[in-house]
Specification:
The complex is a heterodimer of chains A (115) and B (109).
Chain A lengths: L4 E3 L2 E4 L5 E6 L6 E7 L6 E7 L2 E4 L8 E4 L6 E5 L8 E8 L9 E2 L3 E5 L1
Parallel strand pairs in A: 2-11
Antiparallel strand pairs in A: 1-3, 3-8, 4-5, 4-9, 5-6, 7-8, 9-10, 9-11
Chain B lengths: L3 E2 L4 E5 L4 E7 L6 E7 L6 E7 L4 E4 L2 E6 L4 E6 L8 E8 L3 E3 L3 E6 L1
Parallel strand pairs in B: 2-11
Antiparallel strand pairs in B: 1-3, 3-8, 4-5, 4-9, 6-7, 7-8, 9-10, 9-11
Classes of the chains: A mainly beta (115), B mainly beta (109).
Amino acid sequence: GAGVSQSPRYKVAKRGQDVALRCDPISGHVSLFWYQQALGQGPEFLTYFQNEAQLDKSGLPSDRFFAERPEGSVSTLKIQRTQQEDSAVYLCASGTGSDWYQPQHFGDGTRLSIL
Amino acid sequence: DQQVKQNSPSLSVQEGRISILNCDYTNSMFDYFLWYKKYPAEGPTFLISISSIKDKNEDGRFTVFLNKSAKHLSLHIVPSQPGDSAVYFCAASEAQFYFGTGTSLTVIP
């Protein structure tokens, strides 16, 4: 398939553990976004990459959250010392353009549950 | 503070009739608006968009209307089909994307 792929689909971790969520964007897509979606809410912006450069990380809720895209393709969102409030669906999206005027293509998300 | 609001959590419509989904926003700097459709356990899928320089954009059964003075966006689906049953999110862009909380549409056969 040529869509955005996220893994794992489901992740259960104990409070205090570190987790890593992976996103494979559509090949050739320049922009990559991470969102957090709490139950009953819309996606909330976390961070944005253009190629390997992280241009905006203003949505990351704390310094426990870290994202990288070292080669401008695959991206990893890492959450350290997880807390229960981190439980959510984490969505990755990619886009063809380098601006905010292009629709984003979303993956199916990783559902993270912190016990 | 929610900059994009969808005040109707759910909507039910008979098959063949028009579905109207509404969205309000507060930031007058938003200049690009989109609608996404989401099925359970899947990511949102792009449906239709509109630039702030337009007031209407149409794509098949889907039409998006933008009223900048009222800061209001709507999505019309005509005719509605059972396969349209999903959660619909509106989103607005100004340096980043802001999403509403979604409206769950049920099209009754």
